[in-house]
Amino acid sequence: MIILKESDVVRVVSALAPETSNARAYFKRTVNRNTTRIAVTDIQRTVGNIPVIKRGSTGYRPVMSGGIMYIEPQPIEIDDFFSAVEEDDWERATGMGKNQIVDERLTRWAELVRNTTKALCIQAHRGKIDYMMQAGSEMVRYEVDYGDVDGIERDKALSGLTLTDFIDDATEMEQEIRKRGIGGAIEFIASPEYFRQLVTISANQTKFPVTFTKDGMDIGGFSVKRDNDTYTDLVSGTKQTKHLTESRELMARAVNAGQELDFLRLDDTVQRQAVPLYSFTKERRDQRGTDLFVKSKPFPLINVKGIQLLKYAS
Prior knowledge:
- This protein is α+β, with helices and mostly antiparallel strands and 314 residues long.
- Helix content is 27%, strand content 34%.
- The chain is elongated and about 70 Å long.
- 31% of the residues are buried.
């Protein structure tokens, strides 16, 4: 039987290509939560500043919006197997050859877990997870509501965008986030259409300093990244490709609004500690190979008060 060790998972994860997703990169803080459920107040809380306390007084108790209710984040679980032929190859292989057989299969599923985690992070930016979920033989929707994300609609066509418009847009979006009590740095994500127009109008002016970076541009004191995120969703039986931003949209997000990516304890009778990725093998009951199982339970926590959207007309 092919036996997986914890070191195999560590080796595979360490060898994955660097993460380039803007959506995933927003969740710099990751937490392993040794629980299978999470309090709604952890989602709805406002992470901001609190008043100082007069010496000798009772400590300040942050007000949570809503009572103590819980949701149970859903897991990512993959069932695969190594055939008896692959098992024979593994048994004859050297130590390095064994690693290669394991790495090839486990890397495929580790990347799939990472892509699914990215999809959840993308959706969280919109204030709601609404993702495909398998329940028995049926596909249903996995839904989590973080609250409404504020949006601004412009009547003007994007083709008429000027650099002054952009500076005004970015300034207004920053101010809206500040009004909600979120401080610190703010960055912008532009849809491909918006970013293309911004590059075009930037090339023909000298009023504002422009610096291009590997993933976007800095202009007039604002950092703008080009939306590089996509994922596939299954809607009414049809596959649809979706993005972090909608067409002709600009997104502002506070860099430090309390967002974090949690990995919860798995539904597993052996692995009782929360880990980002867990995998193990068992000999098949028919003795025709080795079953391979891969599990993860990611859950992005986002503060919607740190997100602001703005969209132009077509």
